[in-house]
């Protein structure tokens, strides 16, 4: 049938949108108008079930547009080259919605305890995908995966072993941005189930890569596939919990993302226990005094019967203690005869995390229809009747962020200056935090353990401190922001990070030169506070975006914002490692000028001119080079990260300036005003086209339609 005259403008707008948009976009951007138009065309018989909205709605609207506007018969959809792929996606989307979405994902029970119970699956999902924050536990063992007790020539460098954490967060941002609208269509349960498959599969593939010593397979599994799982599973729990807590958006996003920060607290000790359980020591070749060695191309071999050469590495007491094999004898060990236990540990984590994430996906629910958060403004167990009986809302605290005035859709949000200024701020804070976490354990080993200022156990303690700061920041700063506002909290993050990074080199020098325990504790506290700022940024960002851009599209908009995290994950650790390598190369060049050539030749069984070749074979290190330098030569290792800390401070200055430019969004970007403007334009165009000759069956100008109040 034809639309009534008072619905013609809205219907025409819906049809045009349905022709130009994909199925998921049409469902969400024109949902109310589409329902209104369809009820008009079907005499009020149409009902918006989930499967019809996804699969049948846009095609039906497009055919209705052709029939109404042109008066032509419905000839069905025209075949295009994009239709096979689009049709497949429509069928996949409809199937996922039918299995996991619709009424199946809505909570069937009501009560104040329901929405609090939804925190558990959201938290557990983020706890699993927060696994990469403790990657530095595995980066050090990966640098000696073949040698086990010491790095062999074929082992990966620290930069190569650190890159997976960058790839994970890079893939997370890309996956969240690209798949954001589609994830909103299929619902949180289906999204989290797909994320579980990707993340657990990525861990399994990375375990295979480590076992085969294949760096591309490790990057593909842990970095790309695992990172995709992180991206797909990141925003759906946040958006679901925010829909349960629209009155406490900071708390909702903070609690959910706190799980992301707590992943390292669970993973770090569990990984160390698993690696110790699966670790196999290599075969002992002999002691330095009794083993006949053969030097070839900078490598060390032992000649066996028949003239066969087998590569060996030299293990000192310090390297054995670092590998957790202090009970073994110092000497030479065969390369490739042991294992660090990393591959087996990754495989175990893949299975465990997959099961937890799948169970969480099945447990999570969205609010029931007619859900009103006003009845739950007290904690569970409080007097619900008293809460429901009061219509007054508490006044916002001073400095608290005001409620959004409209909603900015994902296509428009990229045109707002607020998106880019906030993204710059996010990039800077995330780059510093991810860089620090990526080398947490090696940093303490290089700076404090190598100089004797701290024990090897302090490196693990330091990583747990950073993880605790990450978790505490996601919880504490979320509650803090609900009181003082997201903008003021972000200013604290950026401006407060500047002195933390600037003073870090001075604190290191105090520890090394004066053996100051207070300086060591202050350094650990400063780094923990800086990491809490990063955790708070991740936790508050969805709520901050909803303050600026509205709550309707927070999932898709946050997915686009995570592209800043992608850039930070690639730039932060890479810049840190580049600055560290440059400082290390300069320190080695300086020590080579001070080394005794005779002592060098006796220690490394090669002339000092072959230092470059020995570096490539990983036989020459700063600690071994110090052995052939004059007594009293200062160890440059603790100061390798000074330039990195100064660079981070400069980046935070830029972040502070960028965030000060964030202002409320111009109302012209809100989709409500854009829709009103489009509807007025369409109505004016329809009126102009109709002129004085109304369509057949349409009342004349000024005459009410049948059944329509005058």
For this entry, give a set of tags.
about 700 residues, five-stranded antiparallel β-sheet, about 5% strand, elongated, disordered C terminus
Walk me through the structure:
With 710 residues, this protein is mainly alpha-helical. The chain has helices spanning 8-20, 23-29, 31-41, 50-70, 83-100, 112-117, 119-129, 136-142, 158-186, 188-211, 215-244, 249-278, 317-322, 342-363, 384-388, 410-413, 417-438, 440-449, 456-484, 486-514, 517-549, 554-594, 597-604, 611-616, 622-626, 642-660, 671-690, and strands at 284-286, 293-296, 299-303, 309-315, 331-334. It has 27 helices and 5 strands.
Strand order within the widest beta sheet: 1-5-4-3-2
- The count of helical stretches stands at 27
User: What's the pLDDT, averaged over the residues?
Assistant: 78
Ends distance:
22 Å
Helix-strand category:
mainly alpha
Spatial shape: elongated
Low-confidence stretches: 1-6, 8-30, 49-81, 377-400, 700-710
Number of strands: 5
- Beta-strand content: under 5%
Helix coverage percent: 55-70%
Task: Summarize the biggest pleated sheet.
Answer: 5 strands, antiparallel
Rg to the nearest angstrom? 31 Å
List the helices and strands and how they pair.
Blueprint: H1 8-20, H2 23-29, H3 31-41, H4 50-70, H5 83-100, H6 112-117, H7 119-129, H8 136-142, H9 158-186, H10 188-211, H11 215-244, H12 249-278, E1 284-286, E2 293-296, E3 299-303, E4 309-315, H13 317-322, E5 331-334, H14 342-363, H15 384-388, H16 410-413, H17 417-438, H18 440-449, H19 456-484, H20 486-514, H21 517-549, H22 554-594, H23 597-604, H24 611-616, H25 622-626, H26 642-660, H27 671-690
Antiparallel strand pairs: 1-5, 2-3, 3-4, 4-5
